[in-house]
Write a structure and sequence with these properties.
2-enoyl-CoA Hydratase, Chain A, domain 1, 6-stranded mixed beta sheet, alpha/beta, 3-stranded mixed beta sheet, single chain, about 270 residues, 2 domains, globular
Length: about 270
């Protein structure tokens, strides 16, 4: 199935790499009710999009995302009743679930402001390339909310450690790009004019690899959060046996025996 052109962000495909660009640069790319839902639906649809092997997520202009739009989301939320509020928070959480459930590795390219729900989208990605001038903040407590939004209390400690995550989630303070790289939130620091291209280059590299196996790796990384070590070892035994039955595994052996680089086809 082909993904329908979105209305609330930019979507492009170059070869096997899709790029999602949050595109309201005049407002630092905030999210709206509509863009949340459309992003969720797009990542859900990627499960059925075999031609797209990897995804890059970024923001237009010099910022990633300023999070939920103050006037289009925050204001209306203050007037909603509890059932409507719960429907909204479940919908935003569904975006993270969709990002984690799609088999394609997601590489975030982060420059400038990356706060609130924008920081959550970065967190939900598999890899994060940032810039020294980037500013990341989980600023929910600064607007009177808990720091446990959209899975942050579960996922952020696994990325940067419990103590560091607790500091960011309690205080809502900004984490600069160099600190984010030092703490392990960013995989790599890039020049501002190169961060998107670097992320796309990594995505292309992954897209040329054993993409079926990458999907298995992503699934196991996600599933094993809730497993003991014995369950994890058994789950990985089963996952690896599945990968050993693919032609890509045979291709790798044949290429090694012939002393050439393998060409993977994702099957």
């Amino acid at each position: 199935m082909a993904i329908q052109p979105p209305k609330h962000f930019l979507w492009s495909v170059d070869g096997k790499v899709a790029t999602v660009t949050l595109n309201r640069p005049d407002r630092k790319n905030p999210l709206t009710f509509e863009s949340y839902a459309e992003l969720r639906d797009t990542f859900r649809a990627l499960v059925y999009e075999p031609d797209v092997k990897t995804v890059v997520v970024t923001g237009a202009g010099e910022n990633f995302s300023s999070g939920g739009d103050v006037f289009e989301i925050i204001g209306p939320l203050t007037k909603m009743k509890m059932p409507e509020l719960l429907a909204f928070t479940r919908m935003t959480g569904d975006l993270v679930k969709a990002m984690r459930a799609c088999p394609q590795p997601i590489v975030a390219a982060i420059d400038g402001v990356c706060v609130g729900a924008g920081a959550i989208m970065a967190m939900a990605s598999d890899l994060r390339f940032g810039t020294a001038r980037a500013s990341v903040a989980f600023l929910f407590t600064r607007v009177g909310l808990a720091g446990c939004d959209m899975g942050a209390c579960a996922m952020l400690p696994r990325i940067i450690g419990q103590g560091r995550a607790a500091e960011l989630l309690y205080t809502g303070r900004s984490m600069g790009g160099e600190e984010a790289e030092r703490w392990g939130f960013f995989n790599r620091l890039c020049a501002p004019d190169a961060v998107v291209a670097d992320a796309q280059a990594m995505a292309a590299r992954l897209a040329d690899g054993p993409t079926f196996a990458h999907g298995i790796t992503k699934t196991q990384l996600h599933m094993e959060w809730n497993m003991g070590i014995e369950q994890a070892i058994e789950a990985e035994a089963q996952a690896q046996a599945i990968c050993m039955a693919t032609r890509d595994f045979e291709r790798a052996f044949e290429a090694f025996a012939a002393k050439r680089k393998p060409v993977f086809e994702g099957n």
